[in-house]
Design brief:
With about 190 residues, this protein is an alpha/beta fold. It has one domain: Rossmann fold (3-Layer(aba) Sandwich), CATH 3.40.50. The protein contains seven helices and ten strands. The strands form three sheets. Strands 4-3-1-7-8-9 form a six-stranded parallel sheet, with helices on both faces. It starts with 6 loop residues before the first strand and ends in a 17-residue tail after the last strand.
């Protein structure tokens, strides 16, 4: 469903893609992902959207954000908002939907095909608008997880649905095992 001469742009909803890949049991190799879509067409831009916790001394996503920034991705970040819900649990909110939609609409006159890495049904009106402007839209997500990670409305609207699990051998790598904690030294005397 790709043409070699078409101008492509990728829009990656970082948290959504991470959750979809994790539900399928693999991690994304972003170098391979970018290479794969460069092979499929003329890749103009690859955007990656994520919210970052500003007040944490170390954010686990920071090394990925830095690597993507230095390796051809256009990073779109904003501070995540921390709050406590009614049950007293710490929650983090960092929705990037508006930023993704605005960038896609701005870039629409310059591309032939957009690939959105998200299954969020909130993107259905965006896809409809892009299509009215003559842009073909593909979505990468999964229906093979429980529950499926793509909204049925979004899947029906797009020109092409790409099953993330089908890309596993092309853009995936096995998940990293957590680093084991050092063994506790025995303090018993014999």
């Amino acid at each position: 469903m790709f043409y070699k001469d078409e101008r492509l742009a990728l829009f990656i909803d970082g948290s959504n893609l991470y959750a979809a890949a994790k539900s399928l049991g693999f991690d994304i190799d972003y170098k391979l992902l970018r290479s794969e879509f460069m092979r499929r067409g003329k890749l103009l831009r690859a955007f990656y959207y994520t919210a970052l916790l500003e007040n944490d001394d170390y954010s686990p996503i920071r090394p990925l954000v830095d690597w993507l920034h230095y390796n051809g991705y256009s990073m779109v970040t904003k501070p995540a908002k921390e709050y406590t819900d009614s049950m007293g649990r710490r929650k983090v909110k960092g929705n990037m939907d508006i930023e993704l939609a605005v960038n896609a609409l701005e870039l629409a006159p310059h591309v032939d095909h957009m690939v959105i890495f998200s299954g969020d049904g909130d993107f259905r009106p965006l896809v409809e608008s892009l299509q009215r402007q003559g842009v073909r839209v593909s979505v990468v997500s999964t229906i093979r997880s429980q529950p499926p990670m793509i909204s049925d409305d979004l899947r029906r609207q797009v020109d092409n649905f790409i099953e993330l699990d089908d890309l596993r051998d092309v853009i995936g790598r096995p998940p990293r095992d957590p680093i084991p904690e050092p063994a506790q030294a025995s303090t018993t005397n014999e």
